Amino acid sequence: MSDAQSQTALSALRIDRSAAPLKRQRRLRWLIPAALLLAVLVAVAAAVARRTPTVRVAEVREPLPGEQQTELSASGYVDSRRRSVIAPLIAGQLVEVTVEEGEPVRQGQVMARLDDRDARVVLDRAEAEVRAAGARLGAAQAQALNAERTTERTRNLARQGAVSRAQLLDVETAGRATLESLNLAKAQLAIARRAREAARLQLAHTVVRAPFDGTVSKKLANEGAVLAPAALTGTNLGGIVELVDLHALEVEAEVSEEQLSRIHTGQPTLIFLDALPERAFPGQVATVRPAIDRSKATATVLVRFQSVPQGALPDMGAKVSFLRQPLPPGELDAHGQPPRVPASAVVHDGKGDAVWVVKDARLTRQPVRVGGRVGDEVSLTQGPRAGTQVVVAPDPKRLRDGRRVKVETGGG
């Protein structure tokens, strides 16, 4: 074998190493995206694990009186059957307000005075007109009496033939004219007296009095204000004070029209005032206003207190429970009964019954002892106190002691 042939054979036996870098480049081209994808997945999993879960909560609550007898509930506001804006009957400038807000007043008590100078001038003039009309009437009466006597004498003379028939007719005509003047004077005196009465009434209207016993709830005007009873513009429509009878309070509750068939006059109720949440006040349905609010599809039901509670005021928020039958006095107080939570808030696991309490945005598992079930709720003979927030329908896989959570807005 020649040297050239030997070189050719050796060349054929050599390994071609130029293909190896190409394969490595191809492997790296797939490994780098895969590694990046894996890193992203790991980061996402870590973020999901660290994400703060959102929970829906409800408050542990004390039971309300009469819950078992409640037919339906409605919200409303306290109002008074006698509530008026006191305004003058005439226009004028306010010179004195004699009452203040919160002050009790009696019927007929002076509450304000208007400037009465014009009214007094009108009354003085009316008094003068009455005096003048009285004087004219006196003169007319004297003339009528004299005419009557003259007529009688003339008639006697006419019967004797001492005066002619024409003279008698003239005297009788003059007598009738005098009588008409007397009647006119009487009418003028009556008109003058009526004008005097009107002037006196106008003067009396400058003094504003309380139309009923009540309490001044608002002061609407101060001295110097010019008031007009029928004013249609401006911030003051003629009112001086608002007067409310606090002994005639009632609740105006709004009830949807489809529920009206469940309400009747005289039906027993329980009234809960937002300002006095610890108490329930018995009442009854007074009437249902015969009108429907189109925009809300509701009717107003007037509910009266059996005894108006001390501290109740107009415009207080109220809730009304319409009962199937009256409650005995001993059942008006629900204190001492075990608190309640939604049944879905209680978890049952190997450790026993418990609820997840939310405090300062962190979870705490608290054991409970469950009593009876009432509708969608259960009573707790042992557990958190009323007002505590607990998780509704908790997910055991996502919750643990000490974990931070977010409370769902409007939850519970």
From TrEMBL:
All copies of domain Multidrug resistance protein MdtA-like barrel-sandwich hybrid, residue ranges: 86-227
Keyword field: Membrane, Transmembrane, Transmembrane helix
Transmembrane segments: 30-49
Entries under SUPFAM superfamilies matching the protein: HlyD-like secretion proteins
GO terms under cellular component: efflux pump complex
Similarity comment text for this entry: Belongs to the membrane fusion protein (MFP) (TC 8.A.1) family.
Source taxon at top rank: Bacteria
InterPro entries: Beta-barrel_RND_2, MdtA-like_BSH, RND_pump_MFP, YknX-like_C
Residues annotated as signal peptide: none
UniProt name for this protein: Efflux RND transporter periplasmic adaptor subunit
Organism: Corallococcus exercitus
Pfam families: Beta-barrel_RND_2, BSH_RND, YknX_C
GO function term, MF aspect, one: efflux transmembrane transporter activity
Domain YknX-like C-terminal permuted SH3-like residues, every copy: 341-407
CusB-like beta-barrel domain sequence ranges: 251-322
